[in-house]
Amino acid sequence: MYYNADVQKSQILSENKNKSGISRFTNFINGKTYIGSLIGFRHSEETKAKMSTARQGDKHPLFGTSHSEEIKAKISNGMKA
Fold it and tell me: Is 61 exposed, middle or buried (0-12, 13-18, 19+ CB in 10 A)?
């Protein structure tokens, strides 16, 4: 992680040339900018469990919805292929 994007610009460019997945984050509270990559990042098992629990039941984005018959057919055909 780079903590001063303005000062470390040349270092950032040279170390990340031809790489993808590089992100720039700006903290709008303190105005600082951070540059880094999440490639290779893994959530801990504890974090995965918390994320799973947070999206269960009525908190799930698709809660209360159902697929149309057309979409069900597309999914079924895709599974057969």
Answer: exposed
Does the pTM surpass 0.70? The reply is no
Q: How far is CA 30 from the centre of its chain?
A: 23
| Chain segment 17-68, per-residue pLDDT in tens | 777 777 777 888 888 877 777 777 788 999 999 999 999 999 998 899 999 9
Q: Strands 22-26, 33-37: parallel, antiparallel or unpaired by DSSP?
A: antiparallel
Distance of CA 46 to the CA centre of its chain: 18
Integer CA distances (angstroms), 70 to 17, 47, 63, 66, in order: 45, 36, 19, 11
